[in-house]
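Please decode residue identities from the backbone states below.
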């Protein structure tokens, strides 16, 4: 259950959310259905809103809770861990069980999130040709020659085409960026 940010719902037609295709594909890959709250209806997202409200009241330094400013991000992480252990062991008003019990039950049914991200976020897959190019539409775009015969991902971002490659355990890195073109001519970094 999430809010209606554009990464999830790109539009609403007759009150029905139109899902972002990439989030639908990612959800399908992980076996998760994406549900969104009703726009402008606090009751449909009360649980998530209440969690944010409580976290802000207890964790964010304010004049009301007299919490001092955090000196480092590690201090913020420590405060969050302490807060989570406190609220997750309290008996919940609706379920009459501490959330830690429900979390353990959910944990049995869920698989771990992969160490590497789902590649749909990188764009479409292309194989680098022996000429150090990838084809997108009717245009060719150059990439570093070290990537010949390897798989890369391409995606449009505004009026640019971004090419990324995986470095295995090191992660993913951008390897080329070009002005997008429909003309079918090779594009080289300038």
């Amino acid at each position: 259950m999430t809010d209606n940010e554009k990464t999830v719902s790109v539009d609403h037609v007759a009150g029905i959310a139109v899902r972002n295709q990439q989030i639908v594909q990612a959800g399908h890959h992980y076996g998760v259905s994406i549900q969104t709250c009703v726009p402008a209806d606090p009751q449909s997202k009360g649980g998530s809103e209440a969690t944010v409200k409580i976290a802000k009241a207890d964790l964010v330094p304010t004049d009301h809770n007299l919490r001092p400013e955090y000196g480092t991000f590690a201090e913020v992480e420590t405060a969050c861990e302490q807060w989570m252990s406190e609220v997750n062991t309290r008996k919940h008003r609706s379920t009459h069980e501490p959330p830690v019990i429900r979390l353990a039950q959910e944990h049995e049914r869920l698989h771990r999130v992969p160490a590497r991200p789902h590649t749909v976020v990188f764009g479409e897959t292309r194989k680098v040709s022996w000429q150090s190019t990838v084809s997108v539409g009717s245009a060719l775009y150059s990439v570093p020659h070290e990537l010949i015969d390897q798989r890369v991902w391409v995606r449009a971002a505004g009026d640019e085409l971004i090419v990324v490659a995986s470095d295995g355990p090191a992660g993913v890195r951008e390897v080329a960026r070009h002005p997008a073109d429909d003309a079918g001519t090779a594009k080289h970094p300038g």
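Observation: The first strand starts at residue 9 and ends at 13.
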